[in-house]
Design brief:
Layout (H helix, E strand, L loop, with lengths): L5 E5 L6 H11 L3 E3 L3 E2 L14 E2 L2 H9 L3 E7 L2 E6 H9 L3 E5 L2 H8 L7 E6 L3 H11 L4 H16 L6 E4 L3 H8 L1
Parallel strand pairs: 1-7, 1-8, 2-7, 3-4, 8-9
Antiparallel strand pairs: 3-6, 5-6
């Protein structure tokens, strides 16, 4: 019997989703973060097993072939996937689980016969603000920035498929809406 609730949260890169989720996790008891697997390299300050499980492409594909992922997708030339076993274990323990996944993965979970969840899309106040936030990170080349902005436009079109749309204009207000 599954006792916890599943929350699927998606947003374009730079919408503030990671910051929101970290603050939310600190305030809401029994809310746990599902640590995804990825083939991308860690960013400065990221820790394996905390932010992501950083694995090779070969390992990722072997896991996918064995059906170990609840969902997985290729995003920005890297693969990301959610461990089905880990999510189910946390839910059975009575924890509410947050999946921080892209719109492709959210679509797969939405169609899943295994789990039902509450789907929340976090949007930036505007594409201009999104670009400002991405540039402020100083982690992207111009080419990668252009790809992220192009993908953001596509991802924003999927917002209507979510149960809730939350515009992250003011961090404290947005957290208040999510609590």
């Amino acid at each position: 019997m599954i006792e916890g609730r599943l929350f699927v949260v998606s947003a374009p890169s730079g919408a503030g989703k990671t910051t929101l989720l970290k603050r939310l996790m600190a305030r809401v008891p029994r809310l746990v973060f599902s640590v995804s697997h990825t083939t991308r390299e860690p960013r400065a300050g990221e820790k394996d097993g905390v932010d992501y499980h950083f694995i090779s492409a070969d390992t990722f594909h072997r896991m996918a072939d064995k059906g170990l992922f609840l969902e997985y997708a290729e995003v920005h030339d890297n693969f990301y996937g959610t461990s089905q076993k880990s999510v189910l274990q946390q839910l059975r323990r009575g924890h509410d689980v947050v999946l921080d996944i892209d719109v492709q993965g959210a679509s797969i979970v939405r169609q899943s016969a295994i789990l039902q969840g509450v789907h929340i899309f976090i949007a930036p106040p505007s594409l201009a603000e999104l670009e400002k936030r991405l540039r402020g990170r100083k982690t992207e080349s111009e080419a990668h920035l252009a790809v992220r902005l192009k993908n953001a436009v596509i991802e924003m079109q999927a917002a209507c498929k979510y149960d809730y749309l939350v515009v992250n204009d003011d961090l404290d207000e947005t957290i208040g809406l999510l609590v």
